[in-house]
């Protein structure tokens, strides 16, 4: 779980000479779809020969079962992923086997032409993906359109967004397709006594109205049945905290909502108390952005998830498993924890728990404070002397968990604030925890 969001890629190039006699016929250029491909990008160009130096060659693609897309002469390239695709092409599984680029030789000069096809395969690669799990749009009380939200996230280099509009799911049916940003279905279940995000379900509830705790449990139950992961939002906020019972079925808690402030500090302290009690509660964050402003901005904070691939299911799986780091912005800084082959969110087996934890820090600035916490509370503080990377080792023997924070002085607000926060790495100590 090193700080890497690099994806393994491979490519192939094919050339096909098309004779004039093939005009008005359909041509296939076969290629092999490798195993474990997450997305493909296909582009082509045509070189015409002779004095009549123009050719019209249409473009499409098939898999082993059906035609997966056709753009005729309208496009020179296309993408197909598991969740999104270029208009005219169908997203979905990229099954290994024989595929083919399709051409219609609509117009071919007497001397013929050559089509050059470049295919790039983006392979399923476990990596850190980053995004925002709490945003709003014009589908509730936000000012941004769905397209504007997606474009902003793409400009920030982010991988995913959840547009969690209040008590509605209409945004989930209207997500833009022409974006590289993964769209996670979301709804903010908004009540008079607390808010929570339902992530991953297109329509997690039919009616949001509740009057008592039993109603809340029922809404959570229905959302669960429909595939939602559940996060309790801004639990210690001054204006809309979570005032319902905390003994609800949920996957995580939003300890960092918008700019770092006292309400987030209270949430962090509460979360630390839960960890000390032995609860493995996943911490997440979200900007809760509604409209343009000087402080609340997209992906501030930014949630990083170690995911097997860039799909809704795998990103949410990574969150549930606690493979989450939160940074104040998409450009970090970043911290990761590793003990042998185990990382953030993992449990280190008892027979391997005597190894040191490697704390890898990236994007540090001189003066940043790195703080480590366990069930014993504050363990250690290290000040960064220079900008860049740093590697620390911590002897976590007889600890039940270890997590890291990075604090930074922000000149624009003249305050030292949280810059990064990891979820814990856990240790099986064979110790029975009693409240």
TrEMBL record:
Domain of life the protein comes from: Bacteria
SUPFAM superfamilies with a match to the protein in the record: PHP domain-like
Q: Which residues form the Polymerase/histidinol phosphatase N-terminal domain?
A: 131-193
Gene Ontology MF, one: 5'-3' DNA exonuclease activity
Q: Which InterPro entries match?
A: PHP_domain, Pol/His_phosphatase_N, Pol/histidinol_Pase-like
Q: What protein name does the entry list?
A: Phosphoesterase
């Amino acid at each position: 779980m090193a700080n890497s969001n690099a994806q393994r890629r491979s490519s192939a190039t094919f050339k096909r000479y098309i004779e004039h006699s093939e005009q008005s016929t359909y041509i296939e250029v076969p290629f092999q779809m490798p195993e474990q491909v997450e997305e493909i990008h296909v582009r082509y160009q045509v070189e015409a020969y002779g004095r009549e130096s123009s050719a019209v060659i249409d473009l499409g693609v098939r898999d082993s079962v059906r035609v997966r897309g056709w753009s005729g002469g309208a496009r020179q390239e296309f993408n197909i992923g598991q969740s999104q695709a270029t208009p005219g092409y169908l997203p979905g599984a990229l099954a290994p086997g024989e595929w083919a680029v399709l051409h219609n030789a609509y117009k071919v000069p007497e001397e013929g032409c050559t089509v050059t096809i470049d295919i790039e395969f983006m392979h399923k690669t476990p990596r850190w993906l980053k995004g925002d799990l709490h945003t709003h749009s014009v589908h509730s009380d936000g000012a941004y359109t769905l397209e504007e939200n997606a474009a902003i996230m793409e400009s920030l280099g982010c991988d995913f967004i959840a547009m969690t509009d209040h008590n509605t799911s209409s945004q989930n049916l209207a997500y833009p397709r022409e974006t590289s940003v993964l769209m996670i279905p979301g709804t903010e279940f908004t009540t008079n006594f607390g808010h929570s995000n339902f992530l991953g379900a297109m329509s997690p509830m039919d009616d949001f109205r509740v009057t008592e705790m039993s109603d809340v449990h029922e809404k959570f139950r229905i959302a669960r049945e429909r595939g939602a992961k559940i996060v309790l939002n801004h639990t210690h906020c001054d204006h809309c905290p979570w005032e319902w019972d905390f003994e609800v079925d949920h996957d995580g808690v939003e300890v960092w909502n918008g700019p770092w402030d006292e309400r987030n500090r209270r949430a962090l302290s509460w979360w630390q108390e839960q960890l000390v009690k032995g609860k493995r509660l996943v911490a997440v964050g979200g900007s809760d952005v509604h409209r343009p402003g000087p402080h609340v901005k997209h992906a501030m904070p930014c949630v990083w998830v170690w995911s097997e691939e860039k799909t809704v299911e795998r990103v949410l799986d990574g969150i549930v498993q606690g493979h989450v780091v939160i940074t104040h912005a998409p450009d970090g800084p970043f911290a990761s924890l590793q003990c042998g082959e185990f990382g953030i969110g993992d449990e280190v087996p008892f027979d391997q728990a005597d190894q040191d934890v490697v704390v890898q820090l990236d994007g540090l600035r001189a003066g940043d404070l790195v703080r480590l916490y366990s069930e014993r509370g504050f363990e250690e503080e290290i000040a960064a002397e220079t900008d860049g990377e740093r590697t620390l080792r911590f002897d976590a023997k007889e600890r039940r968990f270890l997590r890291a924070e990075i604090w930074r002085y922000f000149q624009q607000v003249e305050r030292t604030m949280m810059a990064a926060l990891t979820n814990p790495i856990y240790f099986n100590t064979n110790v029975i925890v009693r409240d």
